[in-house]
Amino acid sequence: MIVTIAAVESHQLALIASRHSSPKLVEVNWLQMGDSWHRSKSIPKLKKHYGLVDQDFTFISQKSLSKSEPAETLLIEALEQLTAYFKGERQAFNLPLDISLGTDFQQRVWQELQKIPHGKTISYATLAQRVGNPKGYRAVANANGRNPFSIIIPCHRVIASDGKLGGYTGGLDKKEYLLALEGIKGDEVKR
């Protein structure tokens, strides 16, 4: 597995993207500067750099971000698309994603999440109906929590039926931030 870490300096966020030998991304995570990645024992404070870590999530090299490294082209594209998203210049992503590690149900949920337009929200109950399990809003919420492509597969756009934010693996403050970034203000959703 190759894990790439890169910083989006303007938002004090870091991208962690991983892939195996396939040409598709396996997982993408976002951290605020100074956070540790939940899958590792600890990662030192993330600096404004581009680096590679080994399977134990120990830094093995640091490089400047460059398009001249063909092995990392997909990860660089992910960084560029996500940077554009945070600048308000991109509303949708066109990255090849490998969602095959999810169950059939999770894959259906993740595919349906990608249909929610930028700047819009739907309820967990509506999402459950769309994936053919009308009473399965809790199962949908669990699938959201297992989404390996936060932001790219926009699970933050799903809220409770009463208009409350519901849950978010990254924390409700991050969910609220992402919704605000897409033009959905706090008075449109309740905490």
Automatic annotation (TrEMBL):
GO CC terms: cytoplasm
Record-linked InterPro entries: MethylDNA_cys_MeTrfase_AS, MethylDNA_cys_MeTrfase_DNA-bd, MethylDNA_cys_MeTrfase_DNAb, MethylG_MeTrfase_N, MGMT, MGMT_N_sf, WH-like_DNA-bd_sf
SUPFAM superfamilies: Methylated DNA-protein cysteine methyltransferase domain, Methylated DNA-protein cysteine methyltransferase, C-terminal domain
Enzyme class, first EC level, given as a word: transferase
UniProt xrefs under CDD domains: ATase
Statement: the UniProt record of this protein carries the keyword Transferase: yes
Keywords carried by this UniProt record: Cytoplasm, DNA damage, DNA repair, Methyltransferase, Transferase
NCBIfam families xrefs: ogt
Function: Involved in the cellular defense against the biological effects of O6-methylguanine (O6-MeG) and O4-methylthymine (O4-MeT) in DNA. Repairs the methylated nucleobase in DNA by stoichiometrically transferring the methyl group to a cysteine residue in the enzyme. This is a suicide reaction: the enzyme is irreversibly inactivated.
Additional facts recorded: This enzyme catalyzes only one turnover and therefore is not strictly catalytic. According to one definition, an enzyme is a biocatalyst that acts repeatedly and over many reaction cycles.
The protein, known as: Methylated-DNA--protein-cysteine methyltransferase
Organism: Psychrobacter luti
